[in-house]
């Protein structure tokens, strides 16, 4: 490091200035932390497991993928596979089957939660609004196989 | 030490017999180190506590995004951009989308432009608040870290309400965005700005004038204007060195040309200036946001006609100013719905390139200060 | 023979009862020497237990306090879920650490590696024995109190140096060397401030120092000598913070730079010892500050007839610990407010600012004693 | 680990010893489950959420876990926050080995559970932390909210409470799932099921058809109505500022100096400094042209935006993007580099196929960019003094951004 040459007078001037401004600046900082310490209203913590009941995600929150189902458990999926194609990393298997009339319907909607990035492109791509991102975030598990889910309860209609 | 004995990347050859020579040793900072801001390894050649030379080793978080982009559709690449610089995800989205819009030749209605600018500026404030926290935190004041993140949470609350996700927004689309903003957006931003105004005063009192911070950052890590340009620095790092360059003003995108804002520039190029530039930018962003709130069109379409995302063959380049600096996207479009190649120029990469030059002769503590003020995000470098 | 002067009622009680019990022994082995030795040993055991209880018992409380204080400065809540407001969180931490796997990393000097945390613990324990906690509550009321404290306090750095050196880690070594340089430098101003106190009070005995401060707040050392006392107190505060390696002078640990400094390679119980030593040192240094500057175990405002009765109702030890905890709170507020200076700045601060100021203080103190006192 | 595990052996035979063991067990487990100190480790996005969770809003301190240790030797929990790359994996394993037992691993986010967004067509990401470490708790999400991380912590707590010293914590083993392609497996399994079902149902379907010859489905899927939006024109390019040259002028200046410079006239007409036209140059003119635009007082291209390349079947194209900070215009050079045909077919994948002069002497910033191009495409930069791989290991085989790059670890994208 190259230090600039300064005169003794200048040195003492800056030295004395620092002696005054230094402690003052520290006191300013201390005053802020004291202000926060003695003001419990400033605390912003949300206590998660305790506030489970009141905790509500935003309407658009993207959690786990789920199927939109009516009261009888019927879904709207036509097994077109738009969601599957729009998924950036193959997290959705739309497994189509034929119903008794020979028409292509949804057999199983397999969702690999383990690799899902919750980007929401599938929901955007679905022309019938058959899937949505559920506001569900308590999803930790000790068993990775439980992250592979079948979303539909019933076979598709058709 | 002869050249052959030196680990890769080190260049300075010192004479063992000279007087200045003393026992040198090598220290690895990272890949898991609290102050390298991610998975970066810095191989440091030290003489006592003084850094003789430093070689950054990248690639610990190289995820091959550009390779993957070649087999993805254009739309599927947008979430990828979230994961590059995760602190300014919303801005990266826009960078990619602007390039797409050039390729698709679509425009954006006025309301959407305001949405874009407002989210951009919110993202910028959020990123700078993280910088404020990390700067204080890396200097040893843990409390700053929490202060910075406290206000950032509020921004992310707003962004979550708008986009649906806290960090990886995946929000903008060519010609518009995923959603319109909810009605609560403007009041919430307004309330947040009022809150931030008062809190920033506290925070600046807490850190800016602090004599220890000044001692540790003034004159440390000086980057001259010539070096800043030669090493392709951008954003606050370059502006602190006196490079008066901001894409928002020099090549305005969206509606930045219609808004009134200053580009803070300082001329010392040391750590304290970089800090000051960022703090000033928070205030400028707040100014832009206030203008946007006043002018925000209450009515009108929020996106243009939806089209399949398919670019005309050609090469498209877009650049935006993220909180870190110049973020450029280069798309090579071929026929079909997949890009031939997408390349991203992140602002942090050149900043790490100049690190060696800035640290020589300083100590490890200074390196931490410099790293904090460069504010790099490693996944954006490695992609 | 050195007879421990535990002057509290318990000590007298032991000295009284040992000869009485000794009468039941065969006459052949009865002697005053034996009685003295037995009484000494019993007293010593009591003293050791008392010191351990004060020190080790206060550490979890302090850790809890630190976590709460820092949480509230940072607008959060701190430990909340274990016990009422997380009160037993630190107990869980200590228990967990005790039952953690303990191993020495490859390439360390094992003997020194495991010796270091013990050495670090010794210094604060010994200092605690010299502090008068109450009118009669002092383990070793010796005349050379202050010099002994100065001597012992420097002992801790040895443990840190050994720990850092034996760990076979460059970060540890850097941390240890930093800490060595820092503590040796600040030792000087630490000693000089105590010397100022000695000069004003005219004794090196901590009990005597405390006794000279009885009276109102303005008889305390911090206000007794106008302005000078306060400056001395601030100087003591700074140099003791540096002595304890606490933030903002925690350059030896410097998590952001050295990932933990000298204790990077320690785990389980040895690490717990380093952790404990840090907080015990906090107690002893605060006690020292209280003894030297804040009137020790005396209640404030003694000598005003109206409230004297009420104040003396509260035992001295409670006053003492109230003051100690106030001091600790101050240390904590400082820790969670300021950022850490660089090593060379720390050194130049000591040698260019603190030391000249200390010397000036000594001169001024001498002048004060000569002119006023 | 430690003496506690021998307690049952010694104490159980003693009458009443069982109860002592149980009591100690309870206390120790309680302590372990409630005092979880995580390691400061994070690579990408999840790390920020992990940090957020320790900040004022969510405050991991309530669980007693705010003591983030920078040294693995003092940590109990390894929160794997962020993508694990093959280059990082050995470091992670080492960190894990340095932790004293009992130690736990929490995989946070899609990347660490399965590779997340980086499963397909990827050569550098470890597909799931299970490949390298035994993982105790999985927290899916990308990234998971801080609350989700807390839920993971609570799940881990449940798991720890189940351990006793008779059933102590044991070091688990990683399992190799790197080749698992869940999408294809699921599709394959379903195809087989479908085949069986088809055979079984064939008769019933015939019958149904015979019974209802003109069956029509009652199910009519309703399309989601989407708002109609007007088309919007793109705004015109910004006007030139003082000193700024138009793209045509820049090309004219370069063309005058270098014969080989060509440009697509159609693009040049509409090009602006926002979307510059690319000037194609010959390799031999590349360095001289860069030097010219840097030093010419009317151009002053002093700022290097980027150096990158594109791989075409028969040649590479090196793109050098320059701009002038002061004047505000840009120039993009496009240098076609023919691939070296003399290299035999089997060696082509691993050898450098083209070479180009380095511009590090003019732009120091080019140093790292050229290393990146070298690393990704295998283009040699002559005159570069430190041409090493930058993102990949030095013994990595192949150059990933070439179109014909193959890697045995790569799984092709299924859809």
Question: Could you explain the architecture of this structure?
Answer:
The complex is a heterotetramer of chains A (158), B (383), C (373) and D (415). By secondary structure, chain A is an alpha+beta fold. Chain A folds into two domains: 35 residues; 87 residues, Alpha-Beta Plaits (2-Layer Sandwich), CATH 3.30.70.3270. In chain A, 25% of the residues lie in helices and 17% in strands. In chain A, 38% of the residues are buried. The model of chain A has no long low-confidence stretch (mean pLDDT 82). Chain C has one domain. In chain C, helix 2 packs across helix 4. With 415 residues, chain D is of the alpha/beta class. Chain D has two domains: 159 residues, Rossmann fold, CATH 3.40.50; 136 residues, 2-Layer Sandwich (Beta Polymerase, domain 2), CATH 3.30.460.80. The model of chain D has no long low-confidence stretch (mean pLDDT 84). In chain D, strand 8, helix 11 and strand 9 form a beta-alpha-beta unit. Chain D has eleven helices and nine strands. Chains B and D meet through helix 1, helix 2, helix 5, helix 8 and strand 6 of B and helix 3, strand 5 and helix 11 of D.
Briefly summarize what is shown:
The complex is a heterotetramer of chains A (158), B (383), C (373) and D (415). Chain A has 158 residues and is of the alpha+beta class. Chain A contains three helices and five strands.
Question: Which key terms come to mind for this protein?
Answer:
heterotetramer, C: 373 residues, mainly alpha, 68% helix, 0% strand, globular, D: 415 residues, alpha/beta, Rossmann fold, Beta Polymerase, domain 2, four-stranded mixed sheet, three-stranded parallel sheet
Helix content of chain C: 55-70%
Strand order of the largest sheet of chain A: 2-3-5
Number of domains of chain C: 1
Largest interface: B-D, 86 and 85 residues
CATH level-two architecture of the largest domain in chain A: 2-Layer Sandwich
What is the ordering of alpha helices and beta strands of chain C? HHHHHHHHHHHHHHH
Calculate the mean pLDDT score of chain C and round it: 80
What is the count of distinct domains of chain A? 2
């Amino acid at each position: 490091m190259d230090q600039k040459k300064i005169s003794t007078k200048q040195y003492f001037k800056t030295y004395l200035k620092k002696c005054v401004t230094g402690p003052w600046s520290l006191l300013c900082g201390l005053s802020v932390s004291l202000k926060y310490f003695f003001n419990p209203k400033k605390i912003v913590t949300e206590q998660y497991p305790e506030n489970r009941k009141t905790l509500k995600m935003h309407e658009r929150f993207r959690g786990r993928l789920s199927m939109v189902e009516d009261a009888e458990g019927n879904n709207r999926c036509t097994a077109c596979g738009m969601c599957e194609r729009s998924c950036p990393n193959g997290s959705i298997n739309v497994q189509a089957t034929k119903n008794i009339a020979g028409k292509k319907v949804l057999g199983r909607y397999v969702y690999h939660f383990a690799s899902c990035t919750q980007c929401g492109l599938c929901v955007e791509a679905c022309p019938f609004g058959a899937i949505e991102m559920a506001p569900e975030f308590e999803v930790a598990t000790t068993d990775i196989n439980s992250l592979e889910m079948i979303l539909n309860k019933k076979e598709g209609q058709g | 030490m002869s050249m052959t004995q030196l680990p890769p990347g080190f260049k300075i050859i010192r004479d063992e017999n000279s007087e200045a020579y003393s026992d040198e040793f090598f220290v690895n900072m990272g890949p898991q180190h609290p102050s390298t801001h991610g998975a970066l390894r810095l191989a440091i050649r030290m003489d006592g506590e003084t850094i003789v030379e430093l070689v950054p080793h990248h690639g610990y978080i190289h995820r091959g995004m550009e390779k993957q982009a070649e087999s993805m559709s254009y739309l599927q690449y947008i979430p990828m951009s979230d994961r590059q610089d995760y602190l300014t995800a919303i801005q990266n989205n826009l960078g990619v989308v602007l390039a797409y819009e050039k390729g698709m030749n679509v425009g954006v209605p006025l309301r959407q432009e305001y949405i874009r600018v407002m989210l951009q500026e919110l993202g910028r404030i959020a990123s700078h608040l993280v910088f404020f926290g990390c700067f204080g935190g890396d200097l040893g004041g843990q409390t700053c870290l929490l202060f910075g993140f406290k206000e950032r949470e509020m921004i992310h609350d707003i962004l979550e309400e708008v986009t649906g996700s806290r960090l990886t927004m995946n929000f903008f689309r060519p010609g518009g965005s995923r959603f319109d903003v909810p009605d609560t957006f403007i009041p919430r931003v307004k309330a947040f700005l009022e809150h931030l105004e008062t809190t920033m005063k506290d925070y600046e009192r807490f850190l800016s004038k602090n004599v220890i911070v000044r001692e540790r950052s003034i004159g440390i890590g000086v980057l001259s204007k010539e070096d800043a340009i030669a090493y392709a620095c951008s954003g606050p790092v370059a502006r602190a060195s006196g490079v008066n360059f901001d894409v928002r003003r020099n090549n305005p995108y969206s509606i930045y040309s219609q808004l009134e804002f200053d580009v803070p520039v300082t001329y010392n190029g040391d750590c304290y200036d970089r800090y000051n530039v960022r703090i000033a930018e928070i205030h400028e962003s707040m100014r832009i946001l206030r203008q946007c709130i006043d002018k925000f069109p209450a009515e009108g379409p929020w996106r243009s006609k939806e089209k399949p995302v398919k670019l005309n063959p050609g090469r498209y380049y877009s650049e935006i100013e993220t909180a870190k600096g110049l973020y450029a996207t280069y798309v090579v479009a071929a026929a079909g719905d997949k890009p031939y190649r997408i390349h991203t120029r992140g602002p942090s990469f050149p900043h790490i390139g100049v690190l060696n030059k800035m640290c020589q002769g300083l100590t490890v503590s200074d390196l931490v200060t410099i790293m904090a003020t460069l504010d790099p995000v490693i996944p954006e470098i490695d992609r | 023979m050195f007879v421990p002067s535990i002057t509290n009622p318990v000590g007298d009680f032991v000295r009284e009862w040992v000869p009485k019990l000794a009468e039941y022994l065969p006459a052949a082995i009865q002697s005053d020497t034996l009685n003295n030795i037995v009484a000494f040993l019993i007293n010593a055991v009591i003293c050791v237990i008392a010191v351990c209880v004060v020190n080790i018992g206060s550490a979890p409380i302090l850790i809890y306090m630190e976590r709460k204080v820092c949480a509230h400065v940072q607008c959060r809540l701190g430990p909340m879920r274990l016990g009422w407001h997380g009160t037993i969180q630190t107990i869980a931490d200590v228990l967990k650490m005790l039952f953690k796997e303990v191993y020495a990393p490859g390439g360390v000097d094992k003997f020194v590696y495991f010796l270091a945390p013990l050495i670090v613990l010794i210094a604060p324990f010994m200092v605690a024995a010299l502090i008068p906690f109450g009118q009669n509550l002092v383990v070793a009321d010796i005349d050379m109190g202050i010099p002994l404290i100065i001597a012992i306090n420097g002992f801790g750095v040895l443990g840190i140096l050994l720990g850092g050196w034996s760990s076979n880690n460059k970060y540890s070594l850097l941390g240890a060397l930093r800490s060595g340089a820092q503590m040796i430098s600040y030792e000087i101003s630490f000693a000089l401030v105590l010397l100022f106190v000695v000069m004003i009070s005219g004794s090196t005995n901590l009990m005597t120092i405390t006794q000279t401060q009885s009276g109102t707040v303005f008889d305390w050392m911090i206000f007794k000598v106008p302005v000078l006392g306060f400056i001395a107190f601030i100087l003591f505060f700074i140099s003791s913070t540096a002595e304890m390696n606490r933030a903002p002078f925690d350059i030896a640990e410097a998590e952001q730079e050295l990932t933990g400094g000298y204790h990077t390679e320690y785990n389980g119980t040895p690490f717990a010892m380093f952790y404990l030593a840090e907080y015990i040192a906090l107690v002893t240094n605060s006690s020292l500050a209280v003894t030297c500057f804040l009137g020790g175990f005396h209640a404030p405002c003694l000598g005003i007839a109206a409230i004297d009765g009420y104040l003396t109702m509260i035992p001295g030890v409670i006053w003492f610990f109230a003051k100690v905890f106030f001091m600790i709170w101050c240390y904590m507020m400082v820790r969670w407010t300021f950022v850490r200076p660089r090593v060379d700045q720390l050194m130049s601060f000591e040698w260019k600012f603190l030391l000249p100021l200390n010397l000036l203080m000594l001169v001024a103190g001498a002048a004060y004693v000569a002119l006023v006192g | 680990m430690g003496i506690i595990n021998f307690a049952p052996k010694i104490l159980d035979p003693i009458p009443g010893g069982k109860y002592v063991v149980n009591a100690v067990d309870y206390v120790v487990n309680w302590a372990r489950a409630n005092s979880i100190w995580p390691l400061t480790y994070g690579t990408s996005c999840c790390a920020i959420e992990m940090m957020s969770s320790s900040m004022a809003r969510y405050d991991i301190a309530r669980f007693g876990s705010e003591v983030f240790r920078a040294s693995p030797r003092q940590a109990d929990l390894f929160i794997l926050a962020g993508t694990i790359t093959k280059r990082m994996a050995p470091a992670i394993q080492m960190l894990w080995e340095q932790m004293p037992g009992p130690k736990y691993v929490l995989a946070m986010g899609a990347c660490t559970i399965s590779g997340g967004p980086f499963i397909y067509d990827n050569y550098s990401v470890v597909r799931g932390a299970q490949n390298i470490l035994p993982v105790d708790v999985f927290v899916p999400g990308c990234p998971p909210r801080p609350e989700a991380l807390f839920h993971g912590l609570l799940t881990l707590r449940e798991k720890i409470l189940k351990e006793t010293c008779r059933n102590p914590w044991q070091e688990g083993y990683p399992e190799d799932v790197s080749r698992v392609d869940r999408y294809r497996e699921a599709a394959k399994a379903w195809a087989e099921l479908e085949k069986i079902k088809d055979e079984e149902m064939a008769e019933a379907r015939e019958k149904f058809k015979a019974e209802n010859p003109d069956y029509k489905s009652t199910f009519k899927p309703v399309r989601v109505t989407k708002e109609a939006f007007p088309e919007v024109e793109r705004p015109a390019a910004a006007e030139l500022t003082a000193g700024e040259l138009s793209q045509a002028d820049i090309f004219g200046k370069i063309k005058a100096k270098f014969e080989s410079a060509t440009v697509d006239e159609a693009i040049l007409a509409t090009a602006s400094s926002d979307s510059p036209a690319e000037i194609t140059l010959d390799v031999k003119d590349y360095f001289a042209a860069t030097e010219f635009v840097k030093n010419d007082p009317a151009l002053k291209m002093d700022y290097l935006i980027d150096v990158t390349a594109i791989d075409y079947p028969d040649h590479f194209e090196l793109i050098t993007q320059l701009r002038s900070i002061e004047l505000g215009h840009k120039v993009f050079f496009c240098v076609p580099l023919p691939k070296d045909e003399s290299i035999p077919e089997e060696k082509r994948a691993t050898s450098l196929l083209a070479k180009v002069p380095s511009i590090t002497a003019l732009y120091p910033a080019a140093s790292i960019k050229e290393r990146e191009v070298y690393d990704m495409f295998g283009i040699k930069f002559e005159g570069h003094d430190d041409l090493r791989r930058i993102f990949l290991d030095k013994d990595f085989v192949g150059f990933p951004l070439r179109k014909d790059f193959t890697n045995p670890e790569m799984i092709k994208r299924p859809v």
